[in-house]
Amino acid sequence: MADVVVVGVGMIKFGRFPDRSLESLGAEAALLALEDAGLTIHDMQALYSGNVYERMLGQRVLREIGQTGIGVVNCSNACASGATAFREGWVAIKAGIHDVVLIVGAEKMPKGMLGGGAVGSGDRLSPEGLAGSATNPSLFAHMGMEHARKYGTTPEQFARVSVKNHHHSTFNPKAMYQIETPLDVVMSAEMISFPNTKLMCSVNVDGSAAAILCSEAKARQLGLMSRAVRVRGSALASDPWSERNLSMTDFNAVTKLASAAAYESAGVGPDEIDLVELHDCFATAELVHYENLGLCAEGEAGALIDSGDVALGGRVPVNVSGGLLSKGHPLGATGIANVYEIATHLRGEAGRRQVEGAKIGMTHVVGRGSACAVHILERA
Amino acid sequence: MECIALGTSGTLYNYTVVHRSLPGVPTPFVSAVIDLDGGGSIKANLDAPAADLRFGMPVKAIFEKLGQVDVKGRAYFGFRFVPA
Known about the structure:
The structure holds 2 protein chains of 2 kinds. By secondary structure, chain A is an alpha/beta fold. Chain A has helices spanning 22-37, 57-65, 81-94, 136-151, 155-169, 183-188, 216-222, 252-266, 283-292, 301-307, 323-326, 331-346, and strands at 4-11, 46-50, 71-75, 100-107, 191-193, 196-197, 207-215, 229-238, 275-277, 360-367, 371-379. In chain A, a hairpin with a 3-residue loop joins strand 10 (360-367) and strand 11. The longest helix of chain A has 16 residues, at 22-37. The two termini of chain A are 17 Å apart. The mean pLDDT of chain A is 96. By secondary structure, chain B is mainly β. Chain B has no helices and 5 strands. In chain B, strand 2 and strand 3 form a beta hairpin. The mean pLDDT of chain B is 93.
């Protein structure tokens, strides 16, 4: 099967764009990725899009940048939508069906808290607040509290994730926020769902990102290998049945399935990963994912954040982009923005936040429902 | 399909104290995951002060009017947990 390489990436600075359409955001990222690769829309053989809250993003982007008539697949897979689109493009090239495709993710986010269902609509009461909480902040608080129950993880350790990612974002001009948040500031911010304060929740922003995927043979033919990034491994999983899955959404088993499959398909182990962009939708989630992704042994995630090994300059820096906590989390764009970040480091083009000597990086997203995608990328 | 009667007592597996929820939902409240005696697991409100919460603490279900009505004025009858 064909080897697949990333030959172009692009993302816009995440923010709030009430006066812009979804397709204009997607088109801007697509054009950035095309320019990065030195290609045009006429070179693209298919388009895979990721988006959650609207419809037909891919076709709408083509109306902005060129209706060439290529096939479009629009992917909706919760927070994993962008990564799912990326993987679908990878599958098509791997299978030999296409050899150059465009991946675009974009989102205009609704305001407020996600999850839990509407309150006061229709003639039914919402179970929110009557039968516990089903909002996303609460589900991911439960995820952290389960870790605290098993291993004694402290609120300070969860909060340090947020201190780290906000610090990283001060080196990323495309992050929504670039503001230092010391530990006392994080911990004394408004409590949302214990132990996550407001500064431990991801930022609800609009944004877009894009990538160009190409077969390695085609990239060589086009002379695009000098800045190419190889997709070493790709995996997508859904949540397996478990005893408590109906009462407490399990984001761990699905991530462990996807990461194991990604490592196996890449033929590399966790020790070979130089940096990771993982799904820090909440600070609690990032810490638990250290174990789910094999960055440390079970029960050692608290010690890992304390050690500094996951900070820029450490053994395996995590979320040097600032992560969802500070860069922002426009759902459909997030998975592709992760690829943008890793590719930028593997190309040695990340400026002040560059992870020195980075050869292999990992991206991870997990969407509630559940869907987990993991990719392992390598400097080609 | 067959109906199975679940236990009305159990232990606290997991919790979070919810300080901000959807608009109109009174806070704070404790969102709890209860492992029921005899098997099964359920998410529910747990009425207990945050300082008293301990993993594994025994709890029991009480059934009562939940104090909320829908737009047609119908009261809801449901369950919540309290320390046993």
